């Protein structure tokens, strides 16, 4: 452990732990055959995880858990529980109903992995939050793509074994974070400070105070627009690959191989965005990536049926790189805007609202895909547009209010 930086250890654990997220999507073809599922049903399996994540983040934020207990302990316990429920999904599910329950429980556990990973990064490296969070989200992206890579590597294996591999990776993540512990740059947990912590400190109004800060509110606008697009895009990647000329042009890679490449390239986008943020700041990088991913969505909608396969592949790779590159920068802006004692709860509540948005976009595009095919992607366009407008207008109003509050000399 001493040979690696805390940020590297946290990012690695994030990679391993978040492999639980889309493990069911990697087995979509097998599940469709065995359980006679449609695209809408696969979308609901994804949404079950999102729903569990929303509930988990709400409990963490509004219950004060995110800032009352050590982030490393929450992460480790959540990763172990997520590994257990993911294994139950693989071996105990008998159909869609039981599968939805286990995926929902996995989502609850992921609420203790992703936001707590961000808090751990801030606790160890607050002075370079943008770059460090970029590394963290890069690993989240690879973790999302990892089940597709495992499915491609183990094409001849039963889907249950592929999903169980994600559980094993999550157990390793729990061990890494448990041994690392929390960083020195955040206040100690309330439970350690006093034997009788003040419950009013962690009430809902206290958590929502962050949204009164214009800079936090602007970052949240951008983050929410980004979330409308991101997870719906990731959930649809296998369907977009199989529904366009890509699969016929690159049959050797298969749907899983192509899906892995399109999602995993987002890790490169995150790392490049992190490097760029150290030069120009998180704001310009976040807005530039959001505008670029929205442009890719527009180009896809207008030309997916006319582009040659190689052009379509390039477009989807660029989209995959930019659709996630803004996420760590918006999170860094949010973390830097709110008081240190509210960082964990504020990030958790922002995550919760953002993932509630993904439930709507995933359900909408999954249902629309059955009728319109890849043309359903137009439903993703409002996210980047509203995110950009919300960020810019909020910051502009804050700037005007600041100018008006200064008396003339």
**What about the largest sheet?**
none
H/E order of the elements? HHHHHHHHHHHHHHHHHHHH
How many beta-strand segments? 0
Q: Report helical residue fraction.
A: over 70%
Number of structurally distinct domains: 1
**How many H/I helical runs?**
20
CATH class placement: Mainly Alpha
The overall pLDDT, averaged over residues, is 88
Q: What CATH architecture do you see?
A: Up-down Bundle
3D shape: globular
The parts where pLDDT drops under 50 for at least 5 residues are 191-205
| CATH superfamily descriptor | MFS general substrate transporter like domains
Give a summary of the structure in a few sentences.
The N and C termini lie far apart (57 Å). This protein has helices spanning 6-17, 23-26, 28-35, 39-62, 65-68, 71-92, 96-110, 114-124, 129-153, 159-180, 190-193, 204-208, 214-242, 246-249, 254-280, 282-303, 309-322, 327-337, 343-372, 382-405.
């Amino acid at each position: 452990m001493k040979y690696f930086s805390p940020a590297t250890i946290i990012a690695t654990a994030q990679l391993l732990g978040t492999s639980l997220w889309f493990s069911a999507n990697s087995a979509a073809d097998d599940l469709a055959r065995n359980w006679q599922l449609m695209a809408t049903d696969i979308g609901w399996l994804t949404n079950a995880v999102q729903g569990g994540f929303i509930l988990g983040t709400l409990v963490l934020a509004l219950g004060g858990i995110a800032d009352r207990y050590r982030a490393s302990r929450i992460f480790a316990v959540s990763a172990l529980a997520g590994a257990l429920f993911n294994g139950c999904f693989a071996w105990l599910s008998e159909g869609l109903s039981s599968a939805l329950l286990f995926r929902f429980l996995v989502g609850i556990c992921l609420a203790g992995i992703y936001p707590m990973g961000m808090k751990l990064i801030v606790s160890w490296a607050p002075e370079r939050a943008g770059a460090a969070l970029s590394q963290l989200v890069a690993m989240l992206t690879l973790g999302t793509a990892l089940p597709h890579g495992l499915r491609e590597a183990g094409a001849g294996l039963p889907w249950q074994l592929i999903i169980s591999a994600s559980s094993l990776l999550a157990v390793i993540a729990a061990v890494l974070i448990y041994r690392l512990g929390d960083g020195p740059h955040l206040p100690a947990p309330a439970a350690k400070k006093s034997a009788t912590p003040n419950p009013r400190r962690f009430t809902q109004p206290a958590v929502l105070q962050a949204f009164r800060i214009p800079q936090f509110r602007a970052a949240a606008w951008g983050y929410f627009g980004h979330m409308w697009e991101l997870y719906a895009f990731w959930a649809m990647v296998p369907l977009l690959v199989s529904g366009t000329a890509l699969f016929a042009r690159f049959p050797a890679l298969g749907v899983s191989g192509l899906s892995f490449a399109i999602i995993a390239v987002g890790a490169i986008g995150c790392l490049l965005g992190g490097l760029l943020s150290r030069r120009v700041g998180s704001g310009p990088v976040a807005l530039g990536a959001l505008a670029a991913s929205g442009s890719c969505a527009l180009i896809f909608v207008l030309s997916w049926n006319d582009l040659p396969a190689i052009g379509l592949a390039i477009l989807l790779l660029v989209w995959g790189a930019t659709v996630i590159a803004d996420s760590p920068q918006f999170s860094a802006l949010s973390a830097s805007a709110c008081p240190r004692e509210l960082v964990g709860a504020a990030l958790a509540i922002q995550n919760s609202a953002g993932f509630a948005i993904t439930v709507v976009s995933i359900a909408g595009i999954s249902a629309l895909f059955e009728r319109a095919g890849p043309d359903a992607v137009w439903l993703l366009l409002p996210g980047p547009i509203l995110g950009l407008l919300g960020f810019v207008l909020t910051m502009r109003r804050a700037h005007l209010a600041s100018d008006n509050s200064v008396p003339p000399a």
